[in-house]
Amino acid sequence: MAVILGAPAAFRFMAPANPGACLEAAALIGADTRGAGPDDAGELLAQAVIQVMKKVGMPNGLRAVGYTEADVPALVQGVLPQHRVIKLSPRPATADDFRRLFLDSMTIW
């Protein structure tokens, strides 16, 4: 659950680094990607993931599992030392980027 609740925001953020892979992933989980371009990739993948989340009954974001905006600074500080997150990101991410990702993950749909 920890990964999926941030996935739509993360895919939107990471898509510019490899839009082709995001479009392929979106198609593999059922999204109609015909006519989609690189600028559509992140949103198409995010929406495809959201549809799966709804079907399996996932909570609607971090707020639904008890987090609030007041928790975001601690969440950001917790992610910054995690090299698997920072070093493996296909796109460089700053503390402000992570802040935005957590805020965007508070309510997903």
Description:
This protein has helices at residues 7-14, 19-28, 41-56, 72-79, 83-86, 95-104. 51% of the residues lie in helices and 0% in strands. The longest helix is centred in the middle third of the chain and has 16 residues, at 41-56. The radius of gyration is 14 Å and the shape is globular. By secondary structure, it is mainly alpha-helical. It is built from six helices and no strands. The chain starts with 6 loop residues before the first helix and ends in a 5-residue tail after the last helix.
How does the SSE layout of this entry go?
Elements: H1 7-14, H2 19-28, H3 41-56, H4 72-79, H5 83-86, H6 95-104
Mean pLDDT: 96
Distance between the termini: 16 Å
Largest sheet: none
Cα Rg: 14 Å
Number of strands: 0
What is the strand content?
under 5%
Q: Structural class, judged by helices and strands? A: mainly alpha
Count, helices: 6
Apparent shape:
globular
- Into which percent range does the helicity of residues fall? 40-55%
| Low-confidence parts | none
Sketch the topology as an H/E string, one letter per element: HHHHHH
